[in-house]
């Protein structure tokens, strides 16, 4: 099997945190059409602006000779390799939401031709690509899987905000629907990925490998979060314990904190969904999810406890939350668990201000109904919660952070930015 033309012409479907860096990287070796249904996104990229800040204007300009952007599906018809990089979120019941993936598969199904290859990068449970996506492409195209068109899977490993580990620097797992397609997909990525590729024996193996990467991290963070709660009751500094334990060569350096974002806080639910479908109850994975999902409420309760000890009334208290993004130095709001803290404190009828210099104000309002505050006001707040370790907050230093508080106010450091004995509370 080979694509319909000797020269791969690639369409990247979905230009978010995963798709855009991939499209730019692929354009170093292949002609690429970047497609997104969001017209405003396409218009911004054409001007050289990436709102996710994952790709610099210089890199966008450098890719111009081989990379074009469009929201017109018909512009994809000349491509012969389609790479799908859309989100795979969960719904309100914490079940997989395959809506974006099915919609992208419909888009590909409208334009795919005999001999073409469709590669999925979106994180899913084992079996989803062939059970959920392939039938959509078949239905929309009238073509037959593994006769007329072929499928690959190469899970994304993008880490938003991490400019040290870019697409080409991370080993790429690859797989294909036939041995020949697997060879083609592996060779396609191998030209671009300097770190190399790892060819899996099947699409299901590659899907499983991706989903357990983040499940493993989730379970380990849950353990450390539980230890942090235990050590708080014992009056022991968690960070001191972890520093001491970390002197052993094989101790894993996880830290307590909120677990949000598009991967770690979501992917385990894809695996547990499939596990329950086949009659297996994944106790450890779900226990870790319960622990991590409860951390926002735990932090809020700790802040209220500290305020009460200082006889600061919580009702009508002015509380400042520094950071809304799910991680530092990144504008990504997907599945941020900072909102759990805000919601919990709002239930106490406290007045919450949220400041985040990285996050788009309109996105915060649209996604969570939160109106971001401008620069914090010195001397105004009964409590300040350092929720996200943006460089801007680190650079403020303890003195300026303390200056935001009223006399007797509480400074709570979720991220461990400052020494434990210099703040009033920390995980």
Notable characteristics:
427 residues, alpha/beta, eight-stranded mixed β-sheet, 13 strands, disordered N terminus
What does this 3D model show about the protein?
It is a single chain. With 427 residues, this protein is α/β, with parallel strands linked by helices. Helices cover 40% and strands 14% of the residues. It contains 14 helices and 13 strands. It has helices spanning 19-26, 39-46, 57-62, 99-111, 128-141, 179-190, 203-234, 238-245, 267-277, 283-293, 295-309, 338-347, 361-368, 391-403, and strands at 10-13, 32-35, 67-70, 81-84, 117-120, 150-153, 172-176, 197-199, 318-322, 351-355, 381-386, 405-413, 425-426. The chain has an 8-stranded mixed beta sheet, with helices on both faces. Helix 7 (203-234) packs across helix 9, helix 7 (203-234) packs across helix 10 (283-293) and helix 11 (295-309) crosses helix 12 (338-347). The radius of gyration is 23 Å and the shape is globular.
Compact summary:
The protein has about 425 residues and is α/β, with parallel strands linked by helices.
Structural class: alpha/beta
* Total helical elements: 14
Order of strands, main sheet, comes to 3-2-1-4-5-6-7-8
Number of strands: 13
Could you give the topology of this structure?
Layout: E1 10-13, H1 19-26, E2 32-35, H2 39-46, H3 57-62, E3 67-70, E4 81-84, H4 99-111, E5 117-120, H5 128-141, E6 150-153, E7 172-176, H6 179-190, E8 197-199, H7 203-234, H8 238-245, H9 267-277, H10 283-293, H11 295-309, E9 318-322, H12 338-347, E10 351-355, H13 361-368, E11 381-386, H14 391-403, E12 405-413, E13 425-426
Parallel strand pairs: 1-2, 1-4, 2-3, 4-5, 5-6, 7-8, 9-10, 9-11, 11-12, 12-13
Antiparallel strand pairs: 6-7
Helix pairs in contact: 4-5, 7-9, 7-10, 11-12
């Amino acid at each position: 099997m080979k694509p319909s033309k000797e020269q791969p012409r690639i369409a990247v479907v979905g230009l978010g945190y995963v798709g855009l860096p991939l499209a730019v990287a692929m354009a170093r070796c292949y002609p690429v059409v970047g497609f997104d249904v969001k017209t405003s996104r396409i218009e911004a990229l054409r001007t050289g602006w990436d709102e996710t800040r994952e790709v610099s204007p210089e890199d966008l300009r450098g890719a111009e000779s081989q990379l074009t952007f469009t929201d017109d599906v018909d512009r994809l018809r000349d491509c012969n390799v389609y790479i799908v990089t859309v989100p795979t979120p969960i719904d309100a019941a914490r079940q997989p939401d395959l809506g974006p993936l099915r919609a992208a598969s419909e888009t590909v199904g409208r334009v795919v031709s005999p001999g073409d290859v469709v590669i999925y990068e979106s994180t899913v449970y084992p079996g989803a690509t062939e059970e959920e996506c392939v039938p959509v492409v078949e239905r929309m195209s009238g073509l037959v899987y593994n006769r007329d068109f072929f499928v690959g899977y190469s899970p994304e490993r993008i880490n938003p905000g991490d400019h040290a580990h870019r697409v080409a620097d991370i080993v790429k797992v690859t797989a294909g629907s036939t041995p020949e397609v697997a060879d083609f997909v592996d060779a396609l990525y191998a030209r671009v990925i300097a770190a190399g590729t790892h060819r899996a024996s099947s699409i299901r193996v590659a899907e499983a490998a991706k989903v357990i990467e983040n499940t493993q991290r989730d379970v380990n963070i849950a353990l450390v979060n539980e230890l942090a709660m235990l050590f708080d009751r014992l009056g022991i500094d968690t960070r001191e314990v972890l520093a001491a334990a970390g002197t052993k060569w094989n101790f894993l350096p996880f830290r307590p904190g909120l677990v949000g974002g598009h991967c770690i806080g979501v992917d385990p639910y894809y695996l547990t969904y499939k596990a329950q479908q086949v009659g297996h109850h994944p106790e450890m994975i779900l226990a870790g999810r319960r622990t991590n999902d409860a951390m926002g409420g735990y932090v809020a309760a700790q802040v209220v406890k500290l305020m009460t000890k200082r006889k600061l009334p919580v009702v009508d208290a002015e509380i400042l939350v520094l950071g809304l993004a799910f991680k530092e130095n990144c504008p990504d709001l997907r599945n941020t668990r900072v909102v759990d803290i805000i919601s919990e404190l709002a239930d106490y009828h406290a007045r919450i201000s949220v400041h985040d210099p990285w996050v788009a104000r309109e996105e915060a309002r649209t996604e969570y109904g939160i109106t971001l505050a401008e620069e914090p006001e010195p001397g105004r707040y009964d409590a300040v919660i350092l929720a996200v370790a943006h460089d801007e907050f680190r650079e403020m230093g303890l003195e300026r952070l303390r200056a935001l508080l009223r006399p007797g106010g509480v400074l709570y450091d979720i991220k461990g930015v400052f020494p434990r004995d210099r703040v009033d509370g920390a995980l």
